[in-house]
Amino acid sequence: MPDAVRQTDDADGWVCKDLPTDLGAVRETEREVLARLRTLGYDDDQLFAVRLALEEALVNAMKHGNRLDPDLSVRVAYLATAERVEIRVADQGPGFKPDRVPDPTADENLERPCGRGIMLMRCYMDEVAFSESGNEVAMVKYR
Amino acid sequence: MEIQTRREGSCRVVQISGSADINSSAALRETLLGAVEGGDTHIVCDLGETDFICSDALGVLITAYLKARGRGGFLHLASPRDHLAEILETTRLDRLFSIYPDVHAALSSC
Hints:
Chain A is α+β, with helices and mostly antiparallel strands. Chain A is built from three helices and six strands. In chain A, strand 1 and strand 2 (15-20) form a beta hairpin. Chain A has helices at residues 24-39, 44-65, 117-124; strands at residues 6-9, 15-20, 73-80, 84-90, 127-130, 136-142. In chain B, helix 1 (25-37) runs parallel beside helix 2. The longest helix of chain B has 16 residues, at 55-70. Chain B has helices spanning 25-37, 55-70, 82-90, 103-108; strands spanning 2-8, 11-20, 42-46, 50-53, 74-78, 99-100. Chain B has one domain (2-108): Transcription Regulator spoIIAA (2-Layer Sandwich), CATH 3.30.750. The interface between A and B is medium-sized, with 25 and 21 residues.
């Protein structure tokens, strides 16, 4: 079972953390990233957008990627500058095909209680890209 | 997140304060589904003090809405602040829910 959060910082400014598959770790990670962005002058709209996208990415990684398996971990890496924030979230699950997720805004899907996370990430970040296997997402928000 | 509920005539008003995130959606589910299953099928969710909502919490609202509707009731949303109103519009859930500018307006429609 992964221990608590492990963090490494590299010379290029990227902060990398290995999170346990524990939904309780989501909020603390958001707080840390948002605190960094606040010091860089990001406004409330940008902070809200990043928080939402990060929440959806982390929850997807833990729930749907790692299927809440406590033996697996989620790697989150972020680079925050005055111009942009880049965030990468990777799980250890089998991956998926993002383009096969039904459009949650279609009339026939409006009553479905799930399936909005990826759509929200795409709406609130400027760039969102999944790896070919689908178990890593890279997102960018420009200030 | 803090949840407070009160009765207003035949309606149950559920005030959600703070962040409706993944760590609080279970409490929201328990409150809303508990209300419906306990016979409170006319529900107004007051979002005036809700500063964040994730897709999981949106799913809770949808599930409670469907259960209330299935029992002949409703679940209306009231006073969403700008960020929440934008999410409801972006997801097109403003087509599913009846959304009112304040609780009084939601109650007046009942």
